[in-house]
Structure formats: C-alpha cells, structure tokens
Amino acid sequence: DFHDFHNFAVADTINYFCREVKEYTNYERITGVFYGYTCVMSFNKKGAHALYELLDKPYGDFISTTNIFIGEHGAWVPSTTLESLNLHDKMYLAEGDMRMHLSTNMGVYLPHALPDNDYYTSDTWKPRGDINYSLNVQTKALARTVCGKAGLWWQGMFGRWYADERMLEIVGKTEEIYKGQQNNYLKADVCVFVDEKAYKYYASVNHRTVRDVMCNNMWELSHAGFDYHLYLLSDITNDKFPENNYKMFVFSTSFLSYSESSICSPRQVMRSLIKYPVSRQSRKASLNRISQGL
Question: What is the pTM of this model?
C-alpha cells in the first residue's frame, strides 16, 4: 500500500504542475517531464513506477528518459515503454546520455559548483574511446530513434562534450533527418509487456538485484536480432492496443501470484518468452489470468 501511494503521489504531483502550466498559459504551451524509466528504474523509494497515471491524463505532452547505451557494440536499450506513449498520444524525447571521448565530469569543468559532492567526480563521467568511438555512438543513438516513433536531444552535461566539428555535424543534421522520416518506422512481431505495478513486490529486495532482473531482460532482447515494441502491461486492456500486429508476447518483470495472499519469490519472476493469445474480447480476462499466475 505504501509503494502504491508513493508512486501515485509522485505522478499526481507531476500532473498537478503540468495542469497548472496549461491553465496559466491558456493551453498554448506544451509540458513534459523526465519520468517513465520503467524498464530500468529499480529503486522503489523513488516513486517512479506510475507512468500509467501520466498517460491517462491530458496534462503532460511529452516524456523524456535516458537511452541505455552499453558501449560501441552494445545494445541501445529503451528505458521506457515507448509504444505505450505512442498509444496514448504522448511524445517521447530520448535523452542522448552517452559517455564519449570528450565526456568529463563536473569536478574538472566546474569544481566550485559542488565541492562536497563526490558523485560528479566519479568514474561514471569519465571519457571513453576516441573520436571514431564517439561518432559510432552518436550514429547508433540517432538511428535508433529515427527508426522508432521517438525524438532525441543530445545531452552534454557540464559543457564541451560535443566540442568537435565532426560530432557537431551529426547534431546539426538531426532535425533534417527527422523531417525526412514520417512513417517508415521499424515493424515488430514481438510485443514486450512491462509490469510496473509488480515492482512493489521487490521492495524488500536489494535494488541492484532488481535492476539486474529488469535490465538483463532488456539487454538480452536487444541482442536477439529482432525488433520489439514495449508496452505497459496495463495497456493490454486498452481498446486501441493493436494485438493483431504481433505474433509473440513477452511478459517482463511480472510476478506470478498464485493467490491474492501469496506472492512468489524474485527467483520465480516470469522471464521467459511466452506466446499468449490476446483477443479484443478476452483482454480483461487475460490480464486477470496473468496477475493471478494461471
């Protein structure tokens, strides 16, 4: 109950401020939020698992989350349920959060800004690779969003991360490339459901263990050699959900509950690929069967 309330309270606060901005500006401005890290955010106390509360309301227009990029040859893992955003007519702007050869921490650029905060002097922000590595990383990030119904903004924390003419050339071509991409998006036969309402059952588990469960699913799928679409599990009952577009359904990070009072252990999390029939007439029943572990 606590985690349900906490997640709702954070999302409700976001909706409140977005609504206030809309009303103050006579609905002439768009609003958005950095929220919806549904596929990677493992720490329950952050209250980050109520994306469905934002999608069901008309006040926020866009969502932005980081892309999860693992090295030059690694997967480009979406950190949110992109197709759920599209289903609810929300825009998505991926945060191009990549460590490249010019990446440097705040301790170097702005040592006076946070002199007592070791986080911004850690190896998290250290530079990686050379110019060729950086160009490959940029190209992959841009290509992944161009092929999906997503936008992209180039994150350059603390300044000078893109201080190279070759890198800036890619940045400069971004808008032109997006304008030329109107409807030729990647098709997918695989639908992946993410159950953010199940994360509360991990509350007593070390959040790094939970992150392994969440992220490993995404990384493995991204290396599988096929495209897939990401939805919140709650969208399985949405009348607009295009079930006929998919041949396989994957239920990621879902708990099997064998009774209302018995929740299985994290080791029993459903992580395998499951082909599950979903029809327009049986969506509600399908969702109930999933939640009850039948």
Answer: 0.80
